[in-house]
Write a structure and sequence with these properties.
Elements (H helix, E strand, L loop, with lengths): L8 H5 L1 H32 L2 H26 L4 H24 L6 H22 L2 H4 L5 H30 L1 H20 L15 H13 L1 H17 L5 H8 L4 H20 L2 H4 L4 H19 L5 H28 L6 H29 L2 H22 L1 H4 L31
Helix pairs in contact: 2-3, 2-7, 2-8, 3-5, 3-9, 3-16, 4-5, 4-8, 5-16, 7-8, 7-12, 7-15, 10-14, 10-15, 10-16, 10-17, 12-15, 14-15, 14-17, 16-17
Length: 432
């Protein structure tokens, strides 16, 4: 059982990581409550689903625009100081959310403006924060550390909206906003106690040239590029959430309760996978595991399009969620252990943009195909396309497929895609 349960060694071994993780877990819970509260408040003001959908647009566009710029900044300055500035600014935005709710705001535009500002700040904050864990933990503990962060994320996805609903019903959405602002202090404390996080190696002045160098580096590093493409193949081709309402109507009676279960099932799978993640953390063939997890994701969603039994649909979504969270941890481990610190911010920002933009594009694809055909066709074609893409990545990026079969490549190396990876890796040590 010890080998099966999530490895908590990073929490015991490194006090800085422990503070960072606890603060990030609390802050992630607060973020989910605010996300729920914004959607609820927009709908209460307008009664429009289109207005609610525009909240997603106010989140996506700033993330895509600022994501790469954030990585360029993270590779030019002390990342700890950068995150203290962005985290403090996001705390102020949360307080402004609370202020407009306390003032009885009945206009929707302040919510869009605050959401946009918060997303711009997070697009700079996120890539910089993701550079901390590889600097704090040795290579052998990095997968376990990323697993613990993913466990906290999925727990917040499950608990945040539910807790937000209870609090909003008891005292209004302002309670959610106030609690979110308070959780920022826990996250900021964890960052404040970190040592300086200046770039190791040659720092690059922020700007267009720095961003371009980062994109070139990702494109030339076959392991990193293959890992990111594996994420895109899963999210862009087979994201299921936009299809679930129509699938629920067509197959399972259309009850809101049933739809809630379908939407929660992937997060349940994520929590289970991260809780029972011992074998993943100790896996040596991480590239093979990553590709296998992508294939399981696609297979589960393709099968979801064929079933008419609710229990089986929930099981398949749980399996898909478990595969997705496993792939995220493996991809993070592979990417972070395959890059030098001087490119860490820019590479992480590309990964951040891929991880943020891919699901939105995938839900758009899934909804359009489901509208033009049926939910089943959308799920089946998406799942099968995802499987085919994973097979193509395995064929075109053998360096990724073989990652971990011998010594891991040194950060910054670009192994010949036709040759086995080799070289020594150095010890390398995402909340809100």
């Amino acid at each position: 059982m010890r080998n099966l349960i999530v490895d908590v060694t990073p929490l015991k071994a490194e006090a800085s990581f422990r503070r960072l993780w606890v603060g990030g877990a609390l802050s992630s819970l607060g973020s989910r409550m605010t996300t729920f509260a914004v959607v609820l408040q927009v709908y209460q003001i307008t009664g429009s689903s289109a207005a609610v959908g525009a909240v997603g647009l106010a989140t996506l566009v700033p993330t895509l625009v600022m994501g790469l710029i954030g990585g360029s900044l993270a590779d030019a300055v002390d990342r700890r100081k950068l995150v203290l500035v962005t985290g403090s600014s996001m705390a102020v935005v949360s307080l402004l959310f609370a202020a407009q709710a306390l003032a009885g705001n009945e206009n929707v535009w302040p919510l869009y403006v605050l959401t946009t500002v918060q997303s711009l700040l997070f697009a700079v904050d996120g890539p910089a924060r993701r550079t901390f864990v590889p600097r704090l933990l040795p290579k052998d503990l990095l997968p376990a550390g990323l697993t613990l962060q993913m466990l906290a994320f999925h727990a917040s996805v499950l608990l945040g909206p539910s807790l937000g609903g209870v609090l909003a019903a008891a005292g209004g959405v302002k309670i959610c906003y106030i609690i979110d602002a308070l959780t920022f202090f826990a996250a900021l404390y964890g960052v404040f106690r970190l040592p300086p996080m200046r770039v190791e190696g040659t720092s690059s002045p922020p700007g267009i040239r720095s961003i371009w160098e980062g994109l070139r580096y990702v494109g030339h590093n076959k392991i990193v590029a293959g890992a990111m493409l594996s994420d895109l193949s899963a999210t862009v081709l087979a994201m299921p959430f936009a299809i679930l309402p129509a699938l629920n109507d067509a197959r399972f009676g259309g009850s809101p309760t049933t739809l809630g279960l379908l939407n929660a099932a992937p997060a349940v799978g994520g929590v289970l996978a991260m809780t029972l993640s011992g074998p993943v953390g100790g896996a040596t063939r991480k590239g093979t595991w990553l590709l296998g997890a992508g294939a399981v994701w696609g297979t589960a969603l393709a099968c979801l399009g064929l079933t008419g039994h609710l229990w089986l649909a929930l099981t398949l979504l749980i399996v898909a969620g478990a595969a997705d969270s496993t792939a995220v941890v493996l991809r993070g481990s592979i990417v972070q252990m395959s890059i030098p610190d001087e490119f860490r911010g820019r590479t992480t920002s590309v990964d951040f943009v891929v991880g943020s933009g891919g699901p939105h594009l995938g839900n758009f694809r899934g909804g359009m195909v489901a509208s033009a055909t049926t939910p089943s066709v959308s799920l089946l074609t998406g799942g099968l396309s995802s499987i085919a893409a994973i097979a193509l990545i395995a064929l075109c990026f053998p360096a990724l497929r073989r990652y971990g079969t011998s010594a891991d490549p040194a950060p910054g190396s670009d192994p010949d895609p036709g040759q086995p990876s080799n070289g020594e890796n150095v010890s390398v040590g995402d909340p809100k």
